Fold this protein.
Amino acid sequence: MNYRMFSAVAASAILSVAMVAAQGKASGPSASHATASAAVTYRGCFGPGSTPDTYVLSNAKEQGKKGKETINLKVLPAPKVKLDFFLTKEVEITGTVEGAVSGSAETGQVVPKMTATKAKVKSDYCG
């Protein structure tokens, strides 16, 4: 009888610990998703996109981040933001990014989307 009681209590304790551990892991992705919506600045070559009111920031490097990794970003203007002036120039674009930002510009992975809130010319020519 004592053996059965001990087994039941031990099994409930193990299940409780497993459930608490699973709940802790579930909150991880939502925390990283909240960070992804923070404003970031990328510098790269600004060009036209494949559809109207879309643009591409190629060979973009995140400002303030060490390393030489570059990515390509699909850029969409925020409401009341005009970006046509910046075409074919090297620019800094500030905004929020949706989608994973990893890999290099040459890997052909899914291109993350950036909603541009601010742009600044760094050079009249890319290169």
